[in-house]
Design brief:
The chain has about 425 residues and is of the alpha+beta class. Helix content is about 25%, strand content about 25%. The protein contains 11 helices and 19 strands. The strands form 4 sheets. Strands 1, 10, 11, 12, 13, 14, 15, 17 and 19 form a 9-stranded antiparallel β-sheet that branches. A 4-stranded parallel β-sheet has the order 4-3-2-5. The protein has a 4-stranded antiparallel β-sheet with strand order 6-9-7-8, sandwiched between helices. The N and C termini lie far apart (about 50 Å).
Amino acid sequence: MVYPPLRLASPGSSVLAAPAVPGVAAVVAPYGSGRHYAAEFASRGWKCVAVTHADDALPPLYRGALDPTGYQRVVVHDGNIHATAHALRSLRVTAVVAGTEIGVPLAEELAHRLRLPGNDPATSSLRRDKGDMAAALTRAGIAAPRSLSTDRLQDALSWAQSLDTTTGVVLKPADSAGSDGVAFCSSPQDIKAAWEKLHRVRNVLGGANDHLVVQERLVGSQYVVNTVSAMGPADTARHTVSEVWADRRALSSHVYDRLDLLSREKLVPRTLAQYTVRVLDALGIRTGPAHTELMHVPGRGPVLIESGARPEGSYDPAAMRQATGSDHIRDAVHAVVTGTPDCLAPDRLRSCVSKISLIAPHDGALDEDLLHTLLTLPTVRGHVGALVPGIPVRRTVDLLTSPGRLVLAARDPHALERDYAAIRDLEAAGLYGEGVR
């Protein structure tokens, strides 16, 4: 599903067209889903360079996570952007991509300095700061959550009191991920308690939480839209919607249950896709993959929760390729190599596909026999997470504490539902051991 080109603001410098011969891609912060870039670029004849901060300068979530396999060289960025850009130029880098959220600003700045396709670094905050995202959409006349970004508790309390809503508010870090620090508040006391817990406390992506964002709490059906963008002629951007997922949560909105892949030809996914393309325009996403979370609010339509200018996290490319013919990483690499965002497998619903998040009700360790049964269920195509017998697990309170995520696919939707029910039965039967209750 390719939408008409959208005119985007120029970053102020010309860019080079995608090379016709194999090039060299720099992957900035190649963690999480970003670690799959190297193999996919290699399959297209390209070389890869990893760009990372020194390990002790990374957030704890990513320390020790770099796998240097498949990279021509690892470039350590010490804060000197001139030196890092010079190192990439000497390696004849022809494309720069962000592997994960913390790599977005640096990837944009490096692409700009190397005069390669990328998003404008002058507007990076629109793609990282949740308050700035909402403000950008409001300026563009696009539905967005009512929001305030502030470093003062009193401002947050006064703004929340003036908000005409019965659903309460959400207090969150401006630049974190995976529901880290997200607090649902229904009273001034809730806001004060959440503020004291979050303000000026490092979040999982290393942000300082100097400013926090308070927003109206959206109520409706939640969705995820994955896209790929590329620059076309006359400085225009083309956006392709590659995947639309219905996002179901369990217990609370922090605990992920399952994502179900939807046909992009249905009315609701088409509405979500059209809205998302407008969001990409407003946020200045000109090139590369984006992962956008939305709420479809009754009587209001799609409203942005947040968008990231990078591949979807907790993603198993091999399982998605088996189920659908392609995946978000492969589509992103295809856009770099060819200069077009067209998806490699436009018919994504060859099978019913779901991503099931594991939910541990208590701390414990993975039971060997039950884990074997889990991983050999007929519709399981792959998983994300270290699902190894005996490995300790924590009680699941959000995405980051889920033990893992399974990809299920089947022609028969009933087969998929049977295995989904079996997963929850195995959890109830002791998948996580006796634990500490």
